[in-house]
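Changelog-adjacent note: as of this version, every example in the card shows the full chain rather than a window. The one below runs 355 residues end to end.
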Amino acid sequence: MSLAVKKWKVVEPRTGIEFCAVNEHSATNGSRDLRDNGCRTPAINHATINNILTATCIGQEPISRRGFLVTAGALGAGMRLLSSPAGRAAETTARGAPHAEQLGWHLACNAYTFNKLTLYETIQKVAGLGLKYTVGINWQKLDPQRPETTFSEQMSAADRQETKKRLSDAGVKMPACYCRIPAEKDACRRLFDFCREMGIEMIDGEPKFETYDMLEKLCEEYQINLAVHNHARPSPYWEPETLLKLIQSRSRRIGACCDTGHWIRSGLPTAETLAKYRGRLFTLDLKNVGEEGHTVPYGTGKADIRGVLKELHRQRFRGVIGIEYSQRSADGEAEVAQCVAFFEKTCQELLGQKG
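Full-length structure tokens:
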């Protein structure tokens, strides 16, 4: 028996992900669709398939019953990915983090996770994870075609417009950016000008102690928040008390960017340390660290990620929480997907909903 089989290239426009697809038609069985992700993606998921908006037929040819069964078997193998842990994580991330949004939490994937790539590549990675937010770094290379250009206040007007367009087209926002904060006033003003133009609402960084008077005035003038980040001991801000004393009488536009991974490296308990920042917590770099000091997926390392999220819920925190996955393996995106899935499951529990 002979079948007519159409071959399609199907493109999901938000992410640019391409799928290969075939449509079988026979006189006895009618038409049915079989889809496969054999073009470029590592895992297939129904959520992405259901959002397909455009498809282009790239040919039609007859195929024998035996040939069709071989093709269908390959497609079935792709579909079986859905039943694996990696496949389930990919399917979850395609939905993003809707339960987190119900709690007022904007789950981001920090650009530092993909710091070996350019920002334009990072935007697509974040969108591919199903997330709507990223936290930038103001020294990341911008474009793989122009490695000398970085995402920074030195960017041309044309590059700034192109970057905003790429973020918008991918459905990704950049509400915050980790920046090297200059001590000189004019240079610092250029940084604030750049952030305001790019729609960045919060600057993360580790300013020198003597710059707080200047930064406080700029934060008020530009209506941009400053979130002070902690690195591990012996960095200046590794102890919570250092920052809290510095800002206790300053503008409410100055607060903390808490890095849970560096707390672990400093020997500080995560949930208990977070509780100290209540009222001045602006954002988190949410990391988990394993026995060797490297980043590991949520739920598998030393950090009490579930306890941290419970503490955030207790504080009625609202804002950006960034997944920052350093020392990524070759399969790092799958590990980030695990973090998203763990985060969403915990948010669902906090909302009192059944999985």
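Structural remarks: The chain has a mean pLDDT of 80.
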